[in-house]
Design goal:
about 40% helix; 9 helices; two-stranded antiparallel sheet; 2 domains; alpha/beta; 10 strands; Rossmann fold
């Protein structure tokens, strides 16, 4: 039996994300992720206005009457959430930590998926895979995924996107829709991402905090790396400190942007302290326009 406060938090997220699914993302998810194609449904008699290209000539040759093949969209999709649970997610300078935003976005995407009867699975990772949840359908399963994302206690602190993506490629054999939800504070994952992007429909959601790209000028500040534990003291009033932080951030973003553009990977940046449904809805609408 889950503690009452945990159940209440899950319920709050369920109510919030269901509202966003119905109000902000209604129809957008379905129009963007259409399934694997069209599958045969039935043969029926030709009617005025039917496309002659759909006539089943084998049936016509046997019966002497024109029949057409009907197809329906093969809707079933597998949606995988790759969720970064490393220690750098335990940071937030406004009202929520990055890990809170990751959990809410995961819930939003999961509820969007089950609304369309898709299967949902998840990989929770740090510098190794912490938990693999095989994809299944249904509200109960999605609530389990959300519970794990909210309350799982990682065993390790570092980040290895490569490790998570390599497991994905091993266990998910058919093409899936994959959402990588991370702050991307990692190196050396580029090649594994390229391989996964060829195999799957890969979308990257980068969660950032304003203080990661620009520190306030407040004088001496002691900072600790959440993943390595290293502590440093810096003088934020110095202009060269400010410019170094800004330049390092911009260089890393340029590196990532080049990777995403060169391999046509969809990338969404979501900042803590701002409504995350706005960039998500904009992404779905823009992508729907591209594929029409």
């Amino acid at each position: 039996m889950l503690p009452k406060e945990i159940l209440q938090k899950i319920r709050r997220i369920q109510i919030t994300t269901n509202r966003l699914v119905n109000e902000s993302l209604a129809g957008e998810y379905h129009s963007v992720f259409k399934g694997r194609g069209m599958e045969f449904d039935e043969v029926r008699e030709y009617q005025h206005g039917d496309d002659v290209r759909t006539i089943d000539w084998n049936v016509f040759s046997r019966t002497g009457r024109p029949y057409v093949k009907r197809y329906v969209e093969e809707r079933e999709l597998t949606v995988m959430l790759l969720i970064d649970t490393s220690a750098s997610g335990s940071f937030g300078s406004i009202d929520k930590m990055k890990s809170d935003i990751e959990a809410e976005i995961s819930a939003l995407l999961a509820f969007s998926a089950i609304k369309n009867n898709d299967r949902v699975g998840a990989i929770l990772f740090t510098d190794r895979v912490e938990k693999f949840i095989p994809p299944r359908r249904g509200s109960k399963h999605v609530l389990r995924v959300i519970r794990e994302v909210l309350f799982y206690k990682p065993q390790y602190r570092g980040t290895s996107i490569q490790t998570a993506v390599e497991l994905l490629n091993l266990v998910i054999h058919k093409r899936a829709v994959v959402f990588l939800i991370s702050d991307l504070l990692d190196q050396g994952f580029e090649q594994s991402l390229k391989v996964a992007n060829h195999k799957h429909d890969f979308i990257i959601l980068q969660i950032i905090d304003p203080l990661e790209k620009r520190l306030p000028k407040i004088g001496l500040l002691e900072i600790r790396d959440a993943e390595t534990g290293e502590i440093a003291c810096i003088d934020t009033s110095l202009s060269w400190i400010q410019s170094t932080i800004r330049e390092n951030w911009e260089k890393n973003q340029i590196r990532l942007q080049k990777l995403f553009e060169s391999h046509r990977m969809d990338h969404i940046t979501i900042e803590t302290g701002t409504p995350y449904d706005v960039p998500l809805t904009r992404f779905f609408k823009e992508r729907a326009k591209r594929i029409r």
